[in-house]
Design goal:
The protein has about 140 residues and is of the alpha+beta class. The protein contains six helices and six strands. The chain is elongated, with a radius of gyration of 30 Å.
Length: about 140
Protein backbone atom coordinates (compact mmCIF):
# COMPACT_ATOMS: atom_id res chain seq x y z
CA UNK A 1 0.00 0.00 0.00
CA UNK A 2 1.28 3.45 -0.90
CA UNK A 3 0.66 6.46 1.27
CA UNK A 4 1.43 10.10 0.49
CA UNK A 5 2.91 11.89 3.53
CA UNK A 6 3.10 15.58 4.50
CA UNK A 7 6.29 16.31 2.54
CA UNK A 8 4.63 15.19 -0.71
CA UNK A 9 6.62 11.95 -1.01
CA UNK A 10 4.96 8.58 -1.39
CA UNK A 11 5.79 5.85 1.13
CA UNK A 12 5.08 2.15 0.90
CA UNK A 13 3.67 0.38 3.97
CA UNK A 14 4.07 -3.28 4.68
CA UNK A 15 1.82 -5.28 7.05
CA UNK A 16 3.74 -4.07 10.10
CA UNK A 17 3.39 -0.46 8.99
CA UNK A 18 -0.36 -0.91 8.53
CA UNK A 19 -0.79 -2.25 12.07
CA UNK A 20 1.18 0.70 13.46
CA UNK A 21 -0.94 3.08 11.40
CA UNK A 22 -4.15 1.40 12.60
CA UNK A 23 -3.01 1.54 16.23
CA UNK A 24 -2.21 5.23 15.84
CA UNK A 25 -5.59 5.92 14.27
CA UNK A 26 -7.33 4.05 17.09
CA UNK A 27 -5.43 6.02 19.74
CA UNK A 28 -6.20 9.25 17.90
CA UNK A 29 -9.86 8.29 17.78
CA UNK A 30 -9.92 7.76 21.56
CA UNK A 31 -8.20 11.10 22.17
CA UNK A 32 -10.68 12.79 19.83
CA UNK A 33 -13.61 11.11 21.61
CA UNK A 34 -12.28 12.18 25.04
CA UNK A 35 -11.74 15.77 23.86
CA UNK A 36 -15.27 15.81 22.45
CA UNK A 37 -16.72 14.51 25.71
CA UNK A 38 -14.89 17.21 27.69
CA UNK A 39 -16.11 19.91 25.29
CA UNK A 40 -19.71 18.74 25.65
CA UNK A 41 -19.44 18.63 29.47
CA UNK A 42 -17.98 22.15 29.49
CA UNK A 43 -20.75 23.46 27.23
CA UNK A 44 -23.48 21.87 29.35
CA UNK A 45 -21.93 23.29 32.52
CA UNK A 46 -21.68 26.77 31.00
CA UNK A 47 -25.23 26.71 29.68
CA UNK A 48 -26.72 25.42 32.91
CA UNK A 49 -26.75 28.95 34.30
CA UNK A 50 -28.34 32.13 33.05
CA UNK A 51 -26.46 35.30 33.93
CA UNK A 52 -25.30 33.86 37.24
CA UNK A 53 -28.68 32.38 38.20
CA UNK A 54 -28.38 28.62 38.12
CA UNK A 55 -31.10 26.19 37.17
CA UNK A 56 -31.13 24.99 40.78
CA UNK A 57 -31.94 28.51 42.00
CA UNK A 58 -34.74 28.87 39.44
CA UNK A 59 -36.22 25.55 40.57
CA UNK A 60 -36.03 26.69 44.19
CA UNK A 61 -37.88 29.91 43.30
CA UNK A 62 -40.52 27.89 41.46
CA UNK A 63 -40.93 25.59 44.48
CA UNK A 64 -41.37 28.56 46.84
CA UNK A 65 -43.74 30.34 44.46
CA UNK A 66 -46.08 27.36 44.13
CA UNK A 67 -46.20 26.76 47.90
CA UNK A 68 -46.80 30.43 48.72
CA UNK A 69 -49.48 30.63 46.04
CA UNK A 70 -51.29 27.44 47.10
CA UNK A 71 -50.78 27.50 50.88
CA UNK A 72 -49.56 31.00 51.72
CA UNK A 73 -46.31 29.62 53.17
CA UNK A 74 -43.44 27.23 52.68
CA UNK A 75 -42.90 24.41 55.19
CA UNK A 76 -40.30 26.52 57.02
CA UNK A 77 -42.70 29.44 57.32
CA UNK A 78 -45.39 27.06 58.58
CA UNK A 79 -43.04 25.78 61.29
CA UNK A 80 -42.20 29.36 62.29
CA UNK A 81 -45.94 30.19 62.28
CA UNK A 82 -45.61 32.93 59.69
CA UNK A 83 -47.28 33.31 56.30
CA UNK A 84 -47.11 35.46 53.20
CA UNK A 85 -50.14 37.67 52.59
CA UNK A 86 -51.27 40.01 49.84
CA UNK A 87 -50.71 43.58 51.04
CA UNK A 88 -54.13 44.75 49.84
CA UNK A 89 -56.34 41.86 50.98
CA UNK A 90 -54.42 40.10 53.76
CA UNK A 91 -55.18 36.75 52.08
CA UNK A 92 -52.65 34.39 50.52
CA UNK A 93 -51.19 36.00 47.40
CA UNK A 94 -52.47 35.31 43.90
CA UNK A 95 -50.25 33.30 41.55
CA UNK A 96 -48.76 36.36 39.85
CA UNK A 97 -47.72 37.95 43.15
CA UNK A 98 -46.36 34.67 44.54
CA UNK A 99 -44.23 34.07 41.45
CA UNK A 100 -43.05 37.68 41.32
CA UNK A 101 -42.08 37.51 45.00
CA UNK A 102 -40.24 34.20 44.57
CA UNK A 103 -38.20 35.26 41.57
CA UNK A 104 -37.30 38.65 43.02
CA UNK A 105 -36.18 36.88 46.20
CA UNK A 106 -33.33 35.53 44.06
CA UNK A 107 -32.24 39.12 43.49
CA UNK A 108 -32.64 39.93 47.19
CA UNK A 109 -30.33 37.08 48.10
CA UNK A 110 -28.05 37.52 45.10
CA UNK A 111 -27.19 41.07 46.11
CA UNK A 112 -25.21 39.74 49.07
CA UNK A 113 -28.43 39.32 51.03
CA UNK A 114 -29.04 43.07 50.99
CA UNK A 115 -32.67 42.61 49.94
CA UNK A 116 -33.36 40.58 53.09
CA UNK A 117 -31.20 42.79 55.30
CA UNK A 118 -33.23 45.77 54.06
CA UNK A 119 -36.23 44.53 56.05
CA UNK A 120 -34.34 45.04 59.31
CA UNK A 121 -34.11 48.79 58.71
CA UNK A 122 -37.58 49.53 57.38
CA UNK A 123 -40.44 50.39 59.71
CA UNK A 124 -42.78 47.80 58.21
CA UNK A 125 -40.03 45.13 57.88
CA UNK A 126 -40.62 44.56 54.16
CA UNK A 127 -37.86 43.05 52.05
CA UNK A 128 -37.19 44.07 48.46
CA UNK A 129 -39.18 41.17 47.02
CA UNK A 130 -42.14 41.87 49.31
CA UNK A 131 -42.12 45.53 48.24
CA UNK A 132 -41.96 44.63 44.54
CA UNK A 133 -44.66 41.93 44.73
CA UNK A 134 -47.01 43.81 47.03
CA UNK A 135 -46.89 41.16 49.73
CA UNK A 136 -46.16 41.06 53.45
CA UNK A 137 -45.07 38.38 55.92
CA UNK A 138 -47.43 38.05 58.88
CA UNK A 139 -47.62 35.91 61.99
CA UNK A 140 -50.17 33.09 61.59
Amino acid sequence: ISLRVGDGKTRRLDDNGLSVLAAGASAGKEKFREAGRRAVEKTVKERSSFSGISVRMLLWALYCAVLVWRFGATPGKMLMKIRVADLATGEKPAADKAFLRAFFSLISSGAAGLGYFWGVFTRDGKTWHDSIAGTRVLRS
